[in-house]
């Protein structure tokens, strides 16, 4: 019994030596940053929103992301300008491309991620290690397109890639849509 007690005391002393010792100063607080897009106009946190009350608070990618931030993401706004379809819950910012058959954009949508996922064919093999909860869907109108979507507190935000070639599979377009959204998520980091 004396041997076992001695072993426990030695083991206890060894474990105590491994534990952090109080230094008289409080341990630094650990904070984890909430996932968000960071723009000069303000942060756009990921999270849920109420599609019935979003109204005028829907994020506007063309006016709330500066030209410099577009450049930092590796893109530029298409000179044709923004497409404001806020009456139907969309605000789009076309992205300039050298390929005349390629359509690119950043789109805010007043539909929640749940609604988008329920109404659009989901493409399961396109995920992001960078943006939590982001997912890919194909366009619903029969066009060759892919949206890489994440829900924010000010509407769902999607990178968009489409093709004028109607036989282009959405799965081929999704990596480009994902690249767009991830590039803007990386701005300011």
How are the SSEs ordered, and which strands pair?
Layout: H1 2-18, E1 36-39, E2 42-45, H2 61-64, H3 67-73, E3 83-85, E4 90-95, E5 102-109, H4 113-119, E6 122-123, E7 135-138, E8 144-152, E9 155-163, H5 170-185
Antiparallel strand pairs: 1-2, 3-4, 4-5, 5-9, 6-7, 7-8, 8-9
Helix pairs in contact: 3-5
Largest sheet: 7 strands, antiparallel
Strand order across the biggest sheet? Answer: 3-4-5-9-8-7-6
Number of helices: 5
Shape: globular
Q: Could you tell me the mean pLDDT?
A: 85
β-strand percent reads 25-35%
**Derived structural class:** alpha+beta
Poorly predicted ranges (pLDDT <50, ≥5 residues)?
1-23
Helix content: 25-40%
**Pattern of helices and strands:** HEEHHEEEHEEEEH
Radius of gyration, taken over Cα atoms and rounded to an integer in Å: 24 Å
**Alpha-carbon distance between the two ends:** 60 Å
Total beta strands: 9
In terms of quaternary structure, the protein is: single chain
């Amino acid at each position: 019994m004396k041997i076992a007690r001695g072993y426990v005391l030695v083991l206890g002393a060894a474990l105590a030596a491994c534990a952090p010792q109080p230094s008289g100063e409080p341990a630094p607080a650990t904070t984890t940053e909430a996932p968000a897009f960071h723009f000069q106009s303000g942060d756009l946190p990921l999270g849920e929103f109420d599609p019935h009350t979003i109204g005028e608070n829907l994020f506007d990618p063309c006016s709330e992301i500066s030209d410099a931030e577009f450049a930092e993401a590796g893109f530029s706004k298409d000179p044709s300008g923004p497409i404001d379809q806020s009456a139907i819950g969309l605000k789009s910012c076309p992205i300039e491309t050298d390929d005349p058959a390629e359509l690119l954009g950043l789109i805010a949508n007043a539909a929640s991620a749940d609604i988008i996922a329920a109404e659009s064919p989901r493409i399961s093999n396109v995920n992001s290690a960078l943006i939590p909860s982001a997912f890919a869907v194909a366009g619903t109108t029969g066009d060759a397109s892919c949206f890489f979507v994440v829900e924010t507190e000010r509407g769902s935000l999607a990178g968009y890639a489409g093709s004028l070639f109607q036989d282009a599979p959405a799965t081929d377009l999704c990596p480009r849509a994902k690249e767009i959204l991830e590039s803007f998520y990386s701005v300011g980091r």
